[in-house]
Amino acid sequence: MVWAQRILADRDALRSEAGALRTGLSGRLRIGSVPTSSGAVAQLTGPFCAAHPLVTVEVMADLRSEEILRQLQNFEIDAGVT
User: Fold this and answer.
1) Stretch 35-43: mean pLDDT, rounded?
2) How far apart are CA 41 and CA 21, in angstroms?
3) CB-based contact 63:54 (threshold 8 Å)
């Protein structure tokens, strides 16, 4: 019985993934950066946002490298630029 539930869960996950491919990426992307890399972050996020309008990008541009590392380790941000 457990194997049948697992197969159904995999089927549901596959349907969800296929739906995401049709509608594009969505959700929130949190990026931490040091102040001096703000220009680079803008150059990266501009085209990304244009290609994926359903994604909300939040940039915290006034962090120190140590704070970026801590937030990455605690899953408070998704990416860091130093």
Assistant:
1) 93
2) 25
3) no
Contact 55, 29 (CB under 8 A): yes
The better pLDDT of the pair 36, 6 is held by 36
**Which residues are CB-contacts of 27 (< 8 A; sequence separation ≥ 6)?**
54, 55, 56
Q: Round to the nearest angstrom and report the end-to-end CA distance of the chain.
A: 50
Q: What is the mean pLDDT of the chain?
A: 91
Q: At 5, phi and psi to the nearest 5?
A: -65, -40
| 8 Å CB contact between 52 and 38 | no
Query: What distances in angstroms separate CA 60 from CA 5, 23, 25, 33, 82, one per listed residue?
Result: 42, 27, 21, 6, 12
